[in-house]
Amino acid sequence: MRADKLLANLGYGSRKDVIKLFRQKALTVDGEAVTNGKTHVYPDKQTLEVFGEEVTYKEYIYLMMNKPDGLLSATEDAVQETVVDILEPEDQLFEPFPIGRLDKDTTGLLLLTNDGKLAHRLTSPKHKVDKEYRVHLARPLSAEGEQRLKEGMTLEDGLETQPAQVSRTDDPRVIFLTIQEGKYHQVKRMIAACGSHVEELERVRMGPLVLDEDLERGAYRELTDQELARLKR
C-alpha cells in the first residue's frame, strides 16, 4: 500500500500531518527513509519504523462487542448513536462495520470487522450460520408454539421461516432460540406468531463464536487467534 495511507491508518494524523512526517524522514522501510507518500510499502514483508520505533501494521480488525441497549447496528447515523461511535479512535481508523444487524433494543454478541469476505460468509444464507438468542418472553411458550418454531412457519407478510432450535430453561419465560436467517425483527415476529412477545432479546452465539461472559455491556475486545480461526473455518 501507499506509505501515506499506511501512516494514516496507523493513526499518525491527517494528510497534512502525514506530509510533515515524510519531510522529517520519520518513516523508514528496511532502514531507508521514505520521503514520498506515494511510495509503495509491503507491511507484511518489510520492517517499518516511525521515529526509530518498529510498527506493526494489520489490514483487518476483528472485534467482539457485547452490544448494549439503545445503539444502532450501523457505522454512522445523523441523529442516533451507533455501535461504531463507542469504539476507540484507533479502532475506528480501520473503518469496521457490524456483521449482521441487531435491533436497537437487542443486546449481546456483535461482530465488527472490515473484512468483507468474512462478513459475507457469515451472513450469506447459503452458509447456514447459526445465530443463537436468549429470549425473555412476556408469557411462557406453549407446546404448540414450540412445535411451530421447530417446524418453521409462515409469518403474516408471507416470510417462510426455516426450522429453528428451541431450548427451554428452568425459567418458563426464558428460552434459547437458534435460527440461521436474519430477517427484519425475525425473532420478535416469530414469537408474536406463537402467542407471546419478546421482552428482552440477547444474542449469545454466532456460528462457533460464543459471547464472552466477562465482557460487560458496551465493552468489546479483539478476537483471539483461535476464535478467528474457528470463524474462518
UniProtKB/TrEMBL annotation:
Keywords for the protein's UniProt record, in alphabetical order: Isomerase, RNA-binding
CDD domains in alphabetical order: PseudoU_synth_RsuA, S4
Enzyme class: isomerase
PROSITE patterns found in the cross-reference section: PSI_RSU (PS01149), S4 (PS50889)
Biological process according to GO: pseudouridine synthesis; rRNA processing
PANTHER family: PSEUDOURIDINE SYNTHASE, PSEUDOURIDINE SYNTHASE FAMILY PROTEIN-RELATED
The protein's name in its UniProt record: Pseudouridine synthase
Source organism of this protein record: Alkalicoccus luteus
